[in-house]
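Appendix B. Extra example for self-study. Work through it before the problem class; the solution is given directly after the inputs so you can check yourself.
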Amino acid sequence: PKTHRVMTLADHISHIITQDFARNQ
Amino acid sequence: SCPVAPASRSSQEMWESFSQCFTPAVKEVVEFAKSIPGFQTLTQQDQVMLLKSGTFQVLMVRFCSLFDPKERTVTFLNGQTYSLASLRALGMGVLLDAMFDFSEKLGSLGLEPDEMALFMAVVLVSADRCGIVDVGAVEQLQENLIKALRTLITSRRPDDTTLFPKLLLRLPDLRTLNNQHSDKLLAFRID
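Solution. Structure tokens for the complete assembly:
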């Protein structure tokens, strides 16, 4: 079974930023 | 005061620990960006694009203080300290060597905390312009911040004319670090 989500550092950074701005809309 | 992490920690645990450090660190960069005078006058789209392009570089500057060039250790934001040797086992050797080099170069300039903070602001607004809608506004903000940084540094060290140019030379170093390493993989446990 898959136990980890793997992503690039750039994608992870991008994801957090998008989430933060969406939350503060 | 941070003990070196026990050798019994698995590579997987270290990789997860390393990955998890980035989440709060990125959120802090977003909050830092909002505190930069003028940043929130940019369109929201341009704020997001600058953060996406520049956060890794801002983090490299921020993380410099976590590197101990003498002991060759790195202290993660969760407080765990790892030797460079143990981190090499995760395949991070090339990235960490580059970061040690960068940390030594930036550290040798002896910046005060407020100078470092203003430098980080310059780094962020100097990020790649790909996707930026109002390039003129971003360039004006960059010019204002660089001027402020120059004034701060030269007023404190009027006899040192080389420090400010040396500091600006760190910007291409950061872009290189970004281009070479932002595609490195992180792993997050799925609960």
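Self-check: The two ends of chain B are 32 Å apart (CA to CA). If your reasoning did not lead you there, revisit section 3.
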